[in-house]
Design a protein that fits this description.
Blueprint (H helix, E strand, L loop, with lengths): L6 E6 L16 H16 L2 E3 L8 E5 L3 H12 L3 E5 L4 H4 L6 H16 L4 E4 L2 H10 L6 E3 L13 H10 L6 E5 L8 H10 L4 E5 L19 E5 L4 H6 L3 E4 L8 H9 L3 E4 L15 E3 L2 H13 L1 H19 L1 H16 L1
Parallel strand pairs: 1-2, 1-3, 3-4, 4-5, 5-6, 7-8, 7-10, 8-9, 10-11, 11-12
């Protein structure tokens, strides 16, 4: 079947609810992935809709919550093919909101059931695929597929860099991240590093939740550290940085790493399993197991501009070759055609 005969229903639950109010001013990897999927469909010339109707022949679900299950079962009765993106795992629910440790146990059972309804499950990484297999889902229906990144959109903008640095009074080498301000993302290590490098600015761009929902930020922060809250200017936020420091404890891929790499930033990450096979210590990033190692790696990058440049160039090239929207698009078109044969 050719591309002209493919029509995808790209569905993200609650995305259109009350004008999308639930997805405004959040800035999650889920939302970034969804927007990238739209770009893939547009650039490859495949027809798509964002609200369910019977005209599609492939239903592509992001996060299979309750109404999504209704649509999936409806699509199944009409012999539509079903793809589900596994953006959420029980493991990454832990360390998000209060009580999430207990919720993650329920989520594991629910996600096993929901993901099993798909013909194909797209896992953002081999690591996520291994988690789903451990749940009891057949590895035969799981494909490890990068979320992708729009390398044309995510490129450094020097005008915005100057605007953001002026706004937040940033100067010299700036170390920062772009992420939800939740414990799982490694706030503790970020604060500790700011204390250790008092002569440099640290900045965390990302939504800050109420202390009713998540553990509050430390009451006393170092003077060289800022948490900005949600930022509309994502490109400006990345562009304002010189070192991207992402000490997260658990990810399914780490969309912001693709975006930071596309911008051209040297990256420091926690050495966790999800990065195995695509992030290589000393080649396209630096990895650290604990705060002592983070301290060493940050010092290395501060003191060595050539290392910063080499790591950034290597990461950008791997993003372009393997994770760009265009690279992802070729794989998705092939998947659609194979499903409909």
């Amino acid at each position: 079947m050719g591309k002209d005969n493919i029509k995808v229903c790209l569905y993200l639950e609650f995305y259109h609810f009350l004008g999308g109010i639930l997805f405004k001013e959040i800035g999650t990897g889920l939302l970034s992935s969804y927007k990238n999927q739209k770009k893939v469909l547009e650039r490859t010339g495949i027809q798509y809709i964002e609200k369910w109707d019977d005209s599609c022949n492939i239903l592509q679900i992001n996060t299979p919550w309750l109404y999504s299950l209704y649509i999936i079962k409806k699509a199944r009765k009409q012999n539509k093919k079903i793809i589900i993106w596994s953006h959420v795992t029980a493991e990454d629910i832990q360390g998000v909101f209060r009580m999430s440790f207990f919720l993650s146990k329920l989520a594991r059972k629910y996600l096993k059931y929901a993901y099993n309804l798909a013909d194909v499950i797209l896992a953002p990484s081999e690591y996520t695929k291994s988690l789903l297999v451990a749940y009891g889902i057949s590895g035969d229906k799981i494909i490890a597929q990068s979320n992708g990144v729009d390398v044309e959109q995510f490129s450094i903008n020097y005008e915005k860099r100057n605007e953001v640095r002026t706004k937040y009074n940033l100067n010299d080498i700036v170390i920062g991240t772009v992420a939800l301000a939740i414990p799982r993302k490694g706030i503790n290590s970020f604060v500790e590093m700011a204390k250790n490098f008092k002569n440099y600015n640290f900045v965390w761009f990302g939504k800050i939740y109420s202390s009713f929902m998540v553990q509050a930020l430390p009451k006393k922060l170092p003077q060289n550290l800022q948490f900005t809250g949600y930022t509309q200017d994502i490109i400006g936020s990345f562009s304002a940085l010189d070192i991207f420091f992402f000490p997260s404890y658990e990810e399914n891929q780490g969309m912001v790493l693709l975006e930071a790499g596309s911008i051209g930033l040297p990256i420091i990450v926690r050495d966790i399993p999800v990065y195995s096979g695509w992030l290589h210590d000393g080649e396209n990033c630096l990895k650290a197991k604990n705060d002592n190692e983070f301290r060493e790696k940050i010092s290395m990058l501060i003191e060595n501009p050539e290392l910063r440049k080499r790591l950034a160039e290597s990461m950008r090239q791997s993003v372009i070759n393997e994770h760009s929207v265009d690279a992802v698009g070729k794989k998705m078109v092939n998947l659609y055609e194979q499903l409909l044969k």
